[in-house]
Amino acid sequence: MSRRFKVLIVDDAPKNIQVVANILGEELYDISYATNGPQALDHVEELEFDLVLLDVMMPGMSGYEVCRQMKKGKRHSELPVIFITARTDEHSIVEAFDAGGQDYITKPFNSSELLARVKTHLKLKAFEDSQQVLINNALAELNILNKEIVETQKEVIFTMGSIGETRSRETGQHVKRVAEYSRLFALLSGVDEFEADLIAMASPMHDIGKVGIPDSILNKKGRLDEGEFEIMKSHVTIGYDMLKHSDRPIMRTAAIIALEHHEKWDGSGYPRGLKGDEIHLYGRVTALADVFDALGSERCYKQAWEDEKIFELLRSQSGKHFDPGLVEMFFENIERFFEIRNQYKDIVG
Hints:
- By secondary structure, this protein is of the alpha/beta class.
- The chain folds into two domains: 5-138, Rossmann fold (3-Layer(aba) Sandwich); 168-343, Hypothetical protein af1432, CATH 1.10.3210.
- Helix content is 58%, strand content 7%.
- α6 crosses α12 (281-295), α6 (172-188) packs antiparallel against α15 (334-343) and α11 crosses α12 (281-295).
- The longest helix is centred in the middle third of the chain and has 57 residues, at 111-167.
- The chain is rod-shaped and about 100 Å long.
- It starts with a strand and ends in a 6-residue tail after the last helix.
- The mean pLDDT is 86.
């Protein structure tokens, strides 16, 4: 054993503590002692030990109870305990192991046996500690790798979403704003941080299906005729078909958004004419975020609307196009939405 191990000896008889300490030898171990249960528990909380040698029959709190209390906390659950006691009956031995002990030595004991068992358990403890270090390092590396994978997914998803927007001559900032608006709407709706992040990461692909729409329709100045509009509407099913086969949470979320972000609260939207809560929250959130940003942005076929005009439309479409609850959230938190808009302004020039 190359390192000095810390051993706690617990016994209500000081002479027994001295006997065990003499056998172990203080030149090999850092030895602490306690003469009752509460004192032992205090030592364990204050210091880090590698092994506890624990008497069973002590006044006030038995060794069994000390061990149980010690093992309750996650910090000490793996701390090895060797019971040293005069009890030799089967019931006492079973209770010792049930309490969490790793070994059981009966008094009077042989010095060589005690040393051998102590060394064995300390070697096991050292090995387990070294393995835990390896596990912790591996988990840390895995966590870093996982973060890199998530960031790569975000980048790929954002790039895919930007392709659809670029084809319709919209800016990458539009994609970012819609993502952040969607995240905020989700959080305000009571969604947890993880799911809100999923929505934000997936929302950039709401118009990915536009890759399948001809440029002549996608970038036409002026209103689309009936036939052209039917073709334009197909971008939601094109996008859904592109995304629906993945089992990844982000892709599943993106598929829902792509399919439902043109549904309307009153059932007049497309492609399925869903109504009210039939429309997934992901679709309702992205629909309002997308329209709010689109109205305030300049596009090839229109000028950006003034804020008051946008507000008027949102109020008039509450309960028609948009979820009225989300519209109410928007006006109650309008400054937070404006902060996002200002943070991701379109780059001019």
